[in-house]
Q: What sequence folds into this?
């Protein structure tokens, strides 16, 4: 059994997803530090990339959940994995275009489950695993992160209120470098593992690995490097929404928000929950707006994000299912090749659309005027 | 433990999350404040300066920063130690 050409294509698609995961989520760790100017944008993405790389090697608990906890591994085929990944990539690119910090994790899980449902029906999905390891953490985590960040922000301002505003700002900008680094590390421990889990699933589906096998080390290495590369590219559109769109952030708030995110993500990694780092970061940023008296929270932006979160699982699922019907309809190696070509075409179209309103390191912090579209055009070449 | 929600894990995440995610920033803030306490005969050189020059303040600050770093190190150690089963 097994088809090594298809397997190679699936692994390439998996790494492509990992790359989108990296740039979509740079914002989670670095948006607040970039917004408060604790870090220069270019330095921020470099630091985040390096720590994502390190984080990816720290744990495999989440990879295990993804590989064996959500779908019946015996029924998974390579075409299913490919279609799931294709659905996830398309959804990640669409949300990136609009600068919406939607969850890469849910895009991936939604895509794979959609493809699985299209291929084998509902008995192939481990619904209990899906609810207990994905849905429940997804619903609860933004609230927990928001609570922790609200308490943290309140305490930090209360303790530091006697300090002069200038030295307080300077001190917490240093703190932010530490807390943002921890979020990057935490992101590596949680998100890099998701692609590791999927590639492991593909290797099992192809018969290359035994059903009970754990993630091989070379998979850990390529996933770590790919997500770091994606992070380094920087998802400037999403960074802009999270850093400027949601709350106007001061450095003590950013520090408290990042500390909350890091703690919640690391704890969830520890328990093997495949958490949406995006939703945790967003909850924390809202919390840091609530914890400081007089801070402005833009609830309309928060509402748009929440809508995107609810839609992500089913939308990515639908795209995963459509990808499966296309790839399986054509069949075999040719089906996956055509699917991959279509995916590249769609990605190209979305990229072309994004060029109309380029956001990069030079204009990521420009004044928020109601949408991700920057108030000043991007300067190319020499940036910040 | 419920079949759909692991309440034990949930509580642990909330409690440890509050201790680590809000408690440690508070200790860091305490350190910053102690560090900025003005010392005898200290002349302010910049609006942004962090160190006030008070010896007791500097000692408290050092203790606070050590607690924060220690807790982070311990947390990462736990995750690495349990994450490769």
A:
């Amino acid at each position: 059994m097994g088809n090594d050409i298809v397997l190679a294509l699936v692994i390439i698609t998996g790494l492509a997803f990992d790359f989108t995961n990296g740039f979509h989520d740079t914002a989670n760790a670095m948006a607040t530090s970039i917004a408060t100017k604790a870090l220069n944008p270019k330095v921020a993405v470099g630091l985040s990339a390096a720590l994502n790389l390190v984080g990816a090697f720290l744990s495999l608990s989440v990879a295990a959940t993804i590989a064996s906890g959500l779908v019946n591994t015996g029924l998974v085929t390579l075409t299913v994995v490919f279609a799931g990944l294709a659905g996830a990539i398309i959804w990640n690119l669409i949300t990136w275009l609009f600068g919406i910090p939607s969850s890469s994790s849910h895009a991936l899980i939604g895509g794979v489950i959609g493809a699985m449902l299209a291929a084998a029906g509902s008995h192939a999905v481990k619904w209990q695993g899906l609810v207990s390891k994905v849905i429940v953490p997804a619903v609860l985590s933004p609230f927990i992160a928001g609570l922790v960040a609200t308490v943290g922000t309140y305490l930090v301002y209360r303790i530091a209120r006697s300090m002069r505003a200038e030295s307080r700002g300077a001190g917490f900008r240093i703190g932010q470098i530490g807390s943002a680094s921890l979020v990057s590390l935490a992101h590596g421990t949680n998100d890099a593992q998701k692609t590791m889990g999927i590639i492991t699933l593909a290797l099992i589906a192809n018969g290359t690995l035994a059903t009970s096998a754990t993630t091989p080390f070379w998979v850990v290495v390529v996933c770590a490097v790919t997500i770091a590369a994606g992070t380094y590219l920087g998802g400037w559109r999403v960074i802009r929404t999270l850093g400027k769109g949601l709350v106007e952030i001061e450095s003590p708030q950013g520090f408290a928000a990042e500390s909350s995110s890091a703690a919640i993500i690391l704890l969830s990694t520890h328990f093997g929950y495949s958490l949406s780092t995006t939703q945790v970061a967003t909850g924390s940023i809202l919390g840091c707006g609530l914890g400081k008296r007089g801070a402005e929270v833009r609830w309309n932006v928060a509402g748009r994000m929440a809508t995107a979160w609810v839609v992500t699982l089913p939308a990515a699922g639908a795209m995963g299912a459509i990808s499966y019907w296309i790839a399986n309809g054509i069949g075999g190696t040719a089906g996956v090749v055509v699917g991959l070509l279509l995916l590249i075409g769609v990605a190209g179209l979305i990229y072309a659309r994004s060029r109309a309103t380029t956001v990069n390191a030079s204009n990521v912090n420009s004044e928020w005027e109601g949408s991700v579209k920057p108030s000043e055009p991007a300067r190319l070449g020499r940036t910040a | 433990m419920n079949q759909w929600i692991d309440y034990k894990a949930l509580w642990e995440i909330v409690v440890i999350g509050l201790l680590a995610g809000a408690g440690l920033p508070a200790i860091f803030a305490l350190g910053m404040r102690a560090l900025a306490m003005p010392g005898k005969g200290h002349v302010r050189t910049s609006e942004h300066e962090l160190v006030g020059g008070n010896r007791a303040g500097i000692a408290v600050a050092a203790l606070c920063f050590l607690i924060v770093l220690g807790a982070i190190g311990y947390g990462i150690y736990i995750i690495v130690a349990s994450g490769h089963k």
Summary: The mean pLDDT of chain A is 85. Residues 127-159 of chain A form the longest helix (33 residues).
